[in-house]
Specification:
The protein has 239 residues and is an all-alpha fold. It has nine helices and no strands. The protein is rod-shaped and about 105 Å long.
Amino acid sequence: MLLILLQAVSAELTPPAATEPVVTQSYFDLLLKGGWILLPLFLLSLLSLYVIIDRCLVLKRLGSKDPVWFSRVWELVQEQKPEKAVKFCHGRSNASAKVVAAGLKEYKSDDQAIQDAMQIEARQQISIMESQMNYLGITASIAPMLGFLGTIFGVITIFYNISITNDLSIASISDGLYQKMICSGAGLFVGIIAYTGYYLLNSRIDRIVLGIDKDSNEILKAIRSIKRGEIAEVEAEED
């Protein structure tokens, strides 16, 4: 009985063992566990952001709305001053102004020549707007595949650690799980950014193209009406 009391007293007097501190890791440290696959994913993310920002600036310039410009060009066409209208168009940076200027340069030609000139210039403007867009499409396709490749490497790491340690504990497979999940998440994240940017920019390009078609058709109608009036006046004088 005395021995039991002495053991109880000694247990109370013995200080409790120090608990091991919980090791916390930053998000950057966790990302590093993804392995070398994160390097190409990081480069693809930088490329996507660069293309998105660059195309946004270009589309903002080419797709800017300028009602004053169109009304002024309309007035100059009605006054039969195509040279001044072309000069006024060159002072604007939007795509519609460049397309209309290309058609007005062929003012003295027939309608087909004017329309062909506008179509050629419109294709050039569309080519400028769609430049580098293929990089976003490629990134949207490749990034998830790279993430899946990192997932495969993570699974390989898990089975390799199990074969070496012959242990199925979380500690032995945590490295592979980290790599598997981080690579999958990073690949999907980069792919989503690229796909979203590609879709939104293409929608913006489609709206700009519709505006180009509208402006060029309105100017072409004005030119046709003026030429029809000139032909009517010539026929009236001959009669």
